[in-house]
Design brief:
Number of domains: 1
CATH class: Mainly Beta
Distance between the termini: 47 Å
Shape: elongated
Number of helices: 2
Oligomer: single chain
CATH architecture: Beta Barrel
Order of helices and strands: HEEEEHEEEEE
Length: 183
């Protein structure tokens, strides 16, 4: 039994390290591909997200139309999540004279989610029936972010339908309201 626990922890660490490495590797490539675009390049935002899951949220704007975001969260259902998404943003999508709406940017993306459960929790309810202590899935975040000119904050609302792939295939839904401070 001890060998299985050690192997499981090693697998969780390797998958987590791999996702983080992949995000870090893709960011410079995406940045070069989008270098001609102008806007809020190289801005990094860090804040909180409230909902399911609740945790820390970060976002790096690669250009005015491309971003990567991540989340580290602890659910009240006894599991820890690592989220990473590549986002396509649509600045000035609401052509209006309203100052508020001109600062609202919709976005859509694709990303991954890695769930690591406490020993007592099985992912039966949160990820639609998965029975392992580690779950990997794909999600499609859809959201809007309000970014006023000043202060450098972003308030966002997001829903993310997804599908768990490992250890079983089931649909799930996530949703958050959050705020980030941009540096």
């Amino acid at each position: 039994m001890g060998i299985l626990k050690a192997a499981r922890k090693r697998t969780q660490f390797l998958v987590s390290a791999g996702l983080l490495s992949l995000t870090c590797l893709l960011s410079p490539l995406s940045k070069q591909a989008c270098a001609a675009e102008t806007g809020r390049e190289n801005e990094f935002g860090l804040g909180i997200m409230l909902g399911e899951p609740t945790g820390i949220s970060g976002r790096l704007n690669l250009s005015s139309k491309r971003s990567v975001d991540f989340g580290l969260a602890r659910s009240d259902k006894s599991y820890f999540l690592i989220l990473a998404d590549y986002l396509f943003t649509f600045p000035h999508a609401f052509h209006t004279s309203s100052t508020f709406l001109s600062n609202v940017t919709p976005y859509v993306g694709v990303g991954g989610v890695l769930g690591i459960a406490d020993q007592s929790f099985q992912f039966r309810t949160a990820f639609g029936g998965a029975t392992g202590s580690t779950v990997f899935g794909v999600r499609i975040p859809l959201g809007i972010e309000w970014r006023p000119s000043s202060p450098p904050l972003g308030v966002f609302l997001e829903i993310a339908p997804g599908i768990s792939i490992l250890p079983s295939t089931q649909g799930f839904m996530q949703g958050d309201l959050g705020i980030r401070f941009y540096f």
